[in-house]
Design brief:
209 residues, alpha+beta, 2 domains, 7 helices, 12% strand, elongated, binds zinc ion
């Protein structure tokens, strides 16, 4: 391909227009004016993202199926799952802590994993899932929450510090929780939206809704 036939790309930071260049494996293209990263060549990013997303989903189910926190209720020691802890906080009138815990440790990770699997599984078997564009936009919107794993760890530590009755149970759920934080970080670093568009463009001649 001649130099002036290559597609144009705008820098997301300073809007400078440049021609795309082919990259070596694991290479990154940077803006020549401000140095922002334009795109990366991550070999096999679709397969890696899918594998990490499936592992995350399995660990997420295990985390939420086994007791993670020990809780003292009217003198009775109980072992509860994360969701039961959220319920218990709500019942004790701590609505803000309960809502924050639910959103950061359960809802956002579940939404992120759900969207990734909804996108990647059909693409892997050669289908185009309906609504690719809105889902890619939604993933961009929740990207600022992309440090989900950090929020999750933070909320767990805060729970034990804030609520005297809580203690962490060092069991299956806790080790899965640690694994889940690592897997979510791996999903974030391997996911490359550019590869998804390139893959879909190649198979569908741009007929994507
Ligand atoms: Zn720039």
């Amino acid at each position: 391909m001649k130099n002036d036939e290559r597609p144009l790309i705008a820098c997301p930071q300073c809007d400078l227009l440049m021609r795309e260049i082919p990259l070596p494996s694991k290479g990154a293209a940077c803006c020549c004016r401000c140095g922002a990263t334009l795109y990366r060549n991550l070999p096999d990013s679709l397969n890696r993202s899918l594998a990490f997303s499936i592992s995350s989903a399995i660990l997420f189910i295990i985390v939420n199926s086994f007791p993670l926190l020990g809780i003292n209720l009217q003198g009775n020691a109980n072992a509860v799952t994360l969701l039961q802890a959220v319920q218990s906080l709500w019942d004790q009138g701590m609505h803000l802590v309960s809502s924050l815990t639910f959103i950061t440790a359960i809802f956002v990770p579940a939404l992120e994993m759900g969207l990734m699997l909804y996108l990647l599984v059909p693409i892997r078997i050669g289908l185009v899932p309906p609504g690719v564009s809105p889902i890619m936009r939604l993933l961009q919107i929740i990207k600022p929450w992309g440090m989900v794993e950090v929020f999750m760890l933070g909320i767990l530590v805060s729970l034990v510090k804030l609520v005297q009755d809580f203690r962490i149970i060092p069991g299956v759920a806790l080790w899965s929780f640690v694994g889940l934080t690592v897997m979510l970080a791996a999903v974030a670093s391997s996911f490359n939206p550019r590869d998804i568009w390139a893959h879909l463009d190649k198979d569908n001649d741009g007929k994507i809704d």
